[in-house]
Structures are given as C-alpha cells and as structure tokens.
Amino acid sequence: MNSIRIISDDDVEHILDLKNTILCVENAYQQKANNKATILPLVSADLVEGKADMDIKSGIYQAENLFGLKLVAWFGENEMQGLPALTGMTMVFDLKNGFPRALINARHLTAMRTGAAGAVGIKYLAKKNAEVLVVVGTGHQAVFQIAATLTAVPTIRKVYLYNPRNEEKAKLLQESIRTKLSRIRNDIYDLKNEKWIQRIETVEFSAVNNIESALSETDAVITITPSSQALIRKEWVKPGTHISCIGADLPGKQELDETLFKTVRVFVDDVGQASKVGEIQTAIRLGMVQKELITEIGNVINGNEKGRLSNKDITVFDSTGIALQDLAVADYILKIAEEKNIGTIVNL
Amino acid sequence: MNSIRIISDDDVEHILDLKNTILCVENAYQQKANNKATILPLVSADLVEGKADMDIKSGIYQAENLFGLKLVAWFGENEMQGLPALTGMTMVFDLKNGFPRALINARHLTAMRTGAAGAVGIKYLAKKNAEVLVVVGTGHQAVFQIAATLTAVPTIRKVYLYNPRNEEKAKLLQESIRTKLSRIRNDIYDLKNEKWIQRIETVEFSAVNNIESALSETDAVITITPSSQALIRKEWVKPGTHISCIGADLPGKQELDETLFKTVRVFVDDVGQASKVGEIQTAIRLGMVQKELITEIGNVINGNEKGRLSNKDITVFDSTGIALQDLAVADYILKIAEEKNIGTIVNL
Fold first, then answer.
1. Minimal CA–CA distance to B69: which of A40, A147, A51?
2. Cα separation, B112 vs B106, whole angstroms
3. Among the options B19, B32, B57, B70, which is catalytic?
4. ipTM over 0.90
5. Helix, strand or coil for residue B278?
6. Which Pfam families match (chains A, B) (predicted)?
7. Which of B58, B87, B347 sits opposite A99 (nearest CB)?
8. Domain B117-318 fold
C-alpha cells in the first residue's frame, strides 16, 4: 500500500495502440471462457434523469493476477461547456495482496477497448474476406469502431457511414474520418503511424442516407448509437450478414428489430449482462431468443464453440462492454508504463 | 478531468478526528433518510476462498454534490508478511459534471467511520446516561469502536473487553488500550489531543472472561468480530440493553442468537443491505423479524421515527457499513485537504 501509479489520458493515448488493444480484448474474452477471468455484477445509476448517468464495472482477472473496477460517468450537458461528456477512472489492484497498483484515466481506454469489441466481433463472426462495412452512428465512438475494424479485418476496403437522424453528420464524418483515424496510434514500433496511414488511404468512406441499400451491399455492420428503438428492420438484413451491436448497454436501449433474433445466431460478451442491458434484452424478455442458444464470443475465439456455420448465417455480436476488457487493457498500459516509467507515482 | 487530489493514509490520519467523523456519519444517515443520499447495490466477491475477499460500496451523496465508491479488500495472510490485511481506496467524483475529485486511501477512513457507526447506535438508541460498555471482539477495529463511543457518549466510564476465543487477547488489549486510543486524533483544535487523553484517563478498562456476567452490568454493547455463529445468547441480554452489531457485513456472518430478534426493536443503516449481509440476515430468512418493523437509524436521528420507547426495550443497531459513511467522511477530508493543501495533485 506504499504507492500507486497514476496514468493520465495523455499517457494512455501515448501508450495504447489499436493492435495491442485488440489483442487484449480478444484475450479478455478468451480468459473469461477459460474461467481465468470473472466479471462481477454491474452497478448503474441515473445521476440526473436523462442528463447524467454512471456505471461501475468490476472483475477479477486471474490470468494476470489483478482485480479492479472502472467507473464511467456520462454528463450529456458537459459538451455545451466545452467539457467532455464521458469521464471515468480505472483502478487496478494486485490479486496477490490486495494492494492498489494503478489509477488510469478511463476515457481513451474506454474508446479503444469499445472499438476493439466491435472489430473482434467482425473478425471472428463475419464471412471471410468481408470488404464492406456499414457503420450506423457517427459519433466519437464510431471512429474507434472503424479504426479497430480496419486493423482487425484487413480485407475491409469500403466503409458506409450512416446517421439515422441527421444525414449532414454522416457527411461531416466522411470529410474528417481519415484525419481522425490517423491520430489514433496503431503500431507501437512505428511511432509515425506510417503503415496505419497507408492502410487508411486504401479505404473508401461514403456517407449514405439509404441504409437499406447500404445493407444490401455489405457483409459487416456495426451499430453504435444511443438509440432506444430499432434502427434496422429485419427484412433489410440479407443472409450472410454479421452485425456487431455496440450501442445498447443500459436497460431500454435497442438498435435492431427484435424479431430479427428469431432467425439469427447470437453471440455476446457475457450472457448475464447482455440479457439485462444489451441489444438482446428485448428479445430475451419477449422469448424470441433462448439463453441456452447464446454463445459467449470467448468460446469461439478459443475454439471451444463454433462461430459462423455457413455463408448464409446472420450473426449478431451483442457487446455490452465488460470489466475484463478494461482490466486486460489496463494491465497492458500498466506494463508499458512501468517499463518506460510513464505516469506519476504517488505515496498512499 | 484535469487533475485529481491523491490523499494518503498518513494524510487521512493527520486530517481526520473522531468528533468530525461522528458528525459526518450522523449526517450521512440523516441525508439518506431525507432522500438526499442514495446507496447503490453492494458488489462483493471472494478473491481467494476463505483467505481474501473484497467489496465495492458506491453511492450518490446529493447533499454534498458528489458521488463515488470505495473498494476494500481483505487479505488475511498479509499479516504473516507484516503487511496490512485491509487495503482499499475511495474515489470521489463531482455530481455537477462527473469529474474525478479525489482518490483517498480507505484504510484509516474505514476504521474511523466504522467506529463512528457503533458509537452513533449507542448515542441514539441506548438508555440515557449509559455508564458501562461491553465490547465483544478485541481486534484493531475494537479500538475505534471504543474511541468513538467514548467521544459520542460522555457518560461511559467503564469498558469491559471480551474476546470470545482467547482471554489473553482481551488482557493484552486492556494493557494497551489507553495508548492506542490516545493516538487517534480527536479534536481538530487541540493538536496535542490533551482533552482526549484526559477523557481516556477517566475510563476503567477491564478484560473479562464471563460475558454473561458483564452483560448483566451493562446498558450498551458493541459486537465487532468476524464470527459466523452466535456469541451472545438471548437469555444473557437484560431488558434495557442496546447492542450495536458491527461485525456482520457478509453473507453467513452472525454474532447474536437470532431468536433475540423476536423481542427486540431493530434499527439498521440500510434495510436492503442489512437484510442481505448484516446481523439480521438469519432472523430475516427465518421470519423472526419483519422488514416493515425495521427502522433506518437516519429516521431516528432526524426525528421522524422513534428510537427507544422505554427503559425496558432491547434495541439492536445492525450496521453493515454503507457507502454514504465513506462519502460523507471523504467529503470532509477533501474539504480540509483543499483548505490546507494536503495531498498530491496529479494531472489526469
């Protein structure tokens, strides 16, 4: 209990790259499937109704001998004052003796590990050689979803950008996306990000206003909106499509037509959490999907369960975001920080 | 999200005194009763079965515009290596914008606010002018229970020390108790602790091996052991006694004969939490106490509910420890730290 390492958001941006974030998230899912990582119950609360909420995700990462938690708060009105809407902290403790090891700003960490989740869903569940990605939602997190998917799925060469409420925002993202992507670190050995910038330049980005038409061209979809009603109708989704659902992470949130779940194969990060707060919550409640038929993605990654069975399957990955993603990424950040002496060590 | 204040355990020992801790804890109970403070569900987990566990207590303290959490871990085997068994951290966030404000070492804070809980139970529920206190349990926390009770209840002049397993430990505590008490800060305006030391000297401390006999002499009892079976039998408790039960805070823990609950008036810090993990858990499960008849102590402190009705009542205060105690005390520590510029400010 002598000291703790404090790692700022700037430090995290400096340390964390996309490739290693994706590896950490894949590893977190696998360790959970292997019973070497445990998630604890989610705590969530409205702080100011409709304007601010927070959640606490905690877990034990036996695989790396640590445990801890992340508290993230969302204050929608912060942006009007030029402040970030999302704030939060990750705390890491040593599983050998309970001593605190690190306090890490959770903002960039959360953006990166959430982007990695959508990408890992596509990597393991979409048809091989997927070339087109449709992204529903054009906010801050959409950029990280695209960044991680271009990294994890090298065959993607075209990305459709769709905003269900405001076409203009999709066009603005189309104009700025390459610059935004190029700012995210993507190779720890290539500090100038040169290979990453080359990769970005091979991709075509197009804002679309007809989602039905875009879906007819694609094999891979990511939904990343705060919606509480279906944005994608069942009949728009062609056979063979994979959808990573990232937006729904609280009761009442939903992005897909729930009747879609009658015919799709369902994968999740954690069955318990997804059933309560994820995209599948409505389908579960209405009995359109049976918990017994849901597969945790870690079991696909470690080879114990089958992912996609044919080129006609529609697959859905419902990612609610689990503490183990945070702990796995925090562990990586901490190792680099210790090695390079980044951050501030403070007596406790 | 620019910076956070880190406050070490030494800083907390320097800042926090018994009198203000008791005021904070009383205030936390009252604000909860007034709906100006909210507790969120407890998360608890075994880390190493029987050897290490942890819990996360979180809440919103609207009264002081903050929210946050405390993670506390217990590693029983640490002591064999000369390390503290209890470790933990408190994090405080601003309820106006979600920004982190402070990270505070939770060890001394927890000891102080837990001591205050037992004392507040006696102050509000024991007979007036209680002179004798029986303390069941002689560990580290027993000292804080005694310290806070001597502070909150000025009529106490005699303290019986009882260890249910090991008489020798009670004798050792009898020898060291005055020194231990004198080290705890007890008046922010009296840095030499002189008045506090005078108070300690007026009290007689006696190790006892016959708990039945000690109980026949007393009006106020505190139980503070890790026991999982009843230590006090129903027939030993005379009419008019008040018992503050502090030890039970996890499923399976118990210090009193559960049949006692058929006849006592029951007070708790939080009905939901006490029913699950507190002293009343067994009595609740066996239907010996009805939830509707349980009173939260905050309602007694703010005058909305009656406490003791007669000098013959047996009253029990079941304190499981709630996040609001931590947040109220953390808020006080933070105010003093900001005023006197104590702690380390680190960029986030």
1. A40
2. 10
3. B70
4. yes
5. coil
6. OCD_Mu_crystall (PF02423)
7. B87
8. Rossmann fold (3.40.50)
